Amino acid sequence: MAAATGVGTSLLGGSAAAGTVSPRMASPRQAPTAQFAIGMRQFNWSRGNRQLTTKIFYPASGAAGGNPIPNAPIANGVFPIAEWSHGMGCNSDCYSSQTHDLAAAGFICPAPSFSDNTNIGSVYNGNWSKDVSEVLTRTLALNTTAGDPFAGHIDTRAGVGVSGHSMGGMTTHGLLTAWPDNRIVAAVPVACVDMGNPAGLHAKVLFIHGDHDPTCDYNSARAAYAELPSPKAFLTHVGADHGQYLTPDYRYYAQTKNTFLDWFRWSLYGDTAARDRLQGDATSNGTSWQAALT
């Protein structure tokens, strides 16, 4: 694959309100079919007085499988960004199934550790969403940082993806609503609540939620889904609680994993075969699926 040729204004800019140009959609191509080894780099970034310690998980050279290798050489190729935001009381290591799955599938996954990880007020006032925008800007800039191992390996043309669970899911939805970032073309809010009116971003949005969630109201997420234009989809884990469907030992974890990854393959690689797999990915005795993909 040819290397991306720099980061344009549209991707280094911040919010939709800033008047930057929306990024182009992903050019149709097949996402990687083989699994990658996983590398990890840590960055001690900040936004004002807010610390943004961020681990970036990424496709690495070498044999697939095993734990992330610190500072491993990045694999050959150009890879899109799919960010992950953790939930309350957690950090970038709490959701290894999601961050590692993304990296192994061919995505660069920045995962910030929010400094006030129990303060839900910082989600409702937009600090976490603004933190994610800063992390996206810093990650994208590595593509043209002379001598950086990621230089030339980040797909800056197709826009970026964001995702997260609970407070991280609310943060993700906030980036589509009250604190929009128009670089986002794909989003997966998991166990979120409605954070406001859609900002009109051209993003493909997948919601994942358990319908017996005692923490983040399922009906609020359904309302958020109804407000958004297509393309969109909603994967419900029937009878599931706040997050058991994110753990590999859960009976219907495969439905979470495969739908989650294929959503990003479609949205960020332009892989239409991944789009066509989505209904099959989501279908089981323990799930329900609603989608408007056109």
UniProtKB/TrEMBL annotation:
Biological process terms in GO annotation: lipid catabolic process
Alphabetical keyword list: Hydrolase, Lipid degradation, Lipid metabolism
A Pfam family per the record: PAF-AH_p_II
GO MF term list: 1-alkyl-2-acetylglycerophosphocholine esterase activity
InterPro entries, alphabetized: AB_hydrolase_fold (IPR029058)
Protein name per UniProt: Alpha/beta hydrolase
